[in-house]
Every structure is written in C-alpha cells, then in structure tokens.
Amino acid sequence: MYDVQKIRADFPILSREVNGKPLVYLDNGASAQKPKVVIDAITKGYAEEYANVHRGLHYLSNLATEKYESVRGTIAKFLNAASEDEIVLNSGTTEGINMVAYGWAMPRLQAGDEIILSVMEHHANIVPWHFLRERQGVVLKWVDVAADGSLDPQAVLDAITPKTKLIAITQCSNVLGTMVDVKAITTGAHAVGVPVLVDGSQGSVHAPVDVQDINCDFYAITGHKLYGPSGSGAIFVKKDRMAEMRPFIGGGDMIKEVSKDTVIYNDPPMKFEAGTPGIVQTIGLGVALDYLMEVGMDNIAAHENALRDYAAAKFKGLNWLNIQGHAAGKAAIFSMTLQGAAHAHDISTILDKRGVAVRAGHHCAGPLMDHLGVSATCRASFGMYNTTQDVDTLVDALELAHDLLA
C-alpha cells in the first residue's frame, strides 16, 4: 500500500511553514524536493568522501570513482537500457539534447534537412535545433496539438518527408501534462529510417520508462526533477548512434592520449564526458533513483493519477477557472488562468501567501503559449508526496485569488 504520509516524512522541507502556513509544494514540474537519503548522501559526499574521480590512486579518489561510476548502472536500470555503456552522464536534459545537436546532428544535417518538433516542446528541446536552423539552414517542422492538448502520433508521422532527419519530441508536456505515445512515434519513424530523440525530463518522473520498449535513439533525463540534485542528469544513446557521434566538449577524461599533433579519444560513453563532472550531484542522483525504484514507479504513477483525478473533479466546480489541456491519461500537471484580466503572477503571489508554491509564466514553452493564445499560466504540478489535502488547500487559495482579483 502506498503510504504517502510515510513518504512525506522522508522529505524534511515539507514540515516547514511559508508565510505562516504549512508548505504546499506544487512546483514539482520545475524542480522536485529532495528526500533525506539524498541530502545525507550529498552531505557525506562533501564532508567525508570527497575527491576527484578517475585520475587518483588514493583511497578517497577510488571511493568517489566507485560511487560515481555505479550511478551509470543505476540509471541504466531505471531506464531499462540494455547496457550502462549507453548512458552518458551530464548536468541534465539541456546538456543532453545539446550534445545530440552538436555531436550527432550538426555533422550530418545540411540546409533543407528537417527536424520535426511538437508545438509543446520545452525550450531545451527547441533552442538547440534553432542553432542548426540559424547556422546550417536546417528546417524546423512543427506539429500542433489537438484542442484537448493531446498529440496524435500519426500527425507526427504524417509530417515526415524524405528530408526528415530527426524527430525530437517530449514524452510529457511540462505545461499541459499531456503524455505522448513516443513508442508509436518511434516505431513509425524507424520504419522510414528516421531517428527519434525523446525529452524524458517530465515523462521519466511520472511513469516507468523502458527505453528498449520505446526503442528510441536518444532519451534525456534531468536529476533535479527526479528528486535528485540540480546539476545532475543523463542521456541514453543507442550504441549505433553513439558510434556516429563526435565529441561535444573537449577536455580531460574524454581522451586516451593527447600530443601536440594528435588526440585519441576515449571509448564511449566517456568520449562524451569532458572535465571534472558533478561528482556529488551524480552520486545524489543515483541515491534518488534507488529511492524511486524502491517505492516503485508504478506505485508513484498510480498515486499521482489519483491526485490528478481528484484535482480535476475539484476544478470542475470552479466555473471561472480555465484549465489548459484535458488529454486522457495526462500527468498531474495543471496550467490555469482565471477568467478576466488576472495575471498568472498575481495569482501565484496570492497562492504563496497561503503557503502554496506554484509556478507562473510561460514555462519555457513559448510556441505552446502562442498556440494557446495566452502569455502566461499558473501551473500546479503534483509529485509523489502530494496529498488530496494539498489539492483542497490549492482550491481554497484559488477561490481567494478569484475573490481578490475579480
């Protein structure tokens, strides 16, 4: 049985007050809170076990290296990758997508070649492709979402032409909560020889991930959304795609030999990991993923889906509340506006006075905001430790905001 109160006890920050009210943290879509086991691992890493990795022969360096490198296997298990050699450690999804843009796409895409994106992509899965548009004449093709915020996989596949070289798609919208059938997209794309990159920054948080089943070529995750430290993350890259990639960043660790005239690169995945990494951050990510797998991603998904349904039912009673996105099977993410001229920032400020932490703005999703015809929304995003009481508190705070801003 899922014991949400036991889970909440694992997160120290949830016991604090904000503005004299118990904290209701609903900004998980931006960054999740950290369980004590992660905080303890970070503290121990710096206080008792810190040293640089890979190059030392002393005890602390060997210990740090062992703990750091073990995370590669933990991530492979979390994503069900066939091998830990398909996992490149990095600072998060943004770095992972840029690595693919610079290391895989830039050398092989030419003017007129196409990359297909959905209109609900996060800027991290837009801007790197704009670099290729600006610098190499690559064409970005956009696929719109349906009126309910869903994305039809066939609409993505129908956008493929002989010029299409990549599909870069989110698994879960950070604004609408829409869950995308990335497996169907990958299956159809591969049938005509088109690789697929999946932005799993949100998707990996809300449901189990199996990259072998999805069969995507690239799958990026971010540690700080997975209840781990900021500055941690990884990208899964199929071995055949990894063999096609050139290094993204040059420096130490990603080489075997360097002389005045030559450089011999390290074997993948080390070939794509230059310089001193986020050692303690990555170790903390491994602890966070172990924590999630112990609770069970299926169990977390069931809990969050129940919260989603409870919140949706409560919101229906607020006829002045506009919710963006009603796709079936969406994650527990709600972007909203109030009828009238109330700005999302004003709504968020009033909610904060009640201890309710939400996010207001465009959520790094400019094309989607344009598509929806809004400049900003107020977003409540639920996590593994949220409760129905959190929903009730949010609703009460929204009613106050409506009264004050009407």
Structural summary, described in words:
- Helix 3 crosses helix 11 and helix 12 (297-316) packs parallel to helix 15 (388-405).
- The chain has helices at residues 4-9, 36-47, 59-79, 93-108, 127-136, 153-158, 182-191, 203-206, 211-214, 239-244, 279-295, 297-316, 344-353, 366-372, 388-405, and strands spanning 17-18, 21-22, 24-25, 87-90, 114-118, 139-143, 164-170, 196-199, 218-222, 233-237, 255-258, 263-265, 321-324, 333-338, 356-357, 359-361, 377-381.
- The radius of gyration is 22 Å and the shape is globular.
- Helix 5 links the parallel strand 5 (114-118) and strand 6.
- A 7-stranded mixed beta sheet has the order 4-10-9-8-7-5-6, with helices on both faces. Strands 13-14-17-16 form a 4-stranded antiparallel beta sheet, with helices on one face. A two-stranded antiparallel ribbon has the order 1-2.
- The chain is an alpha/beta fold and 406 residues long.
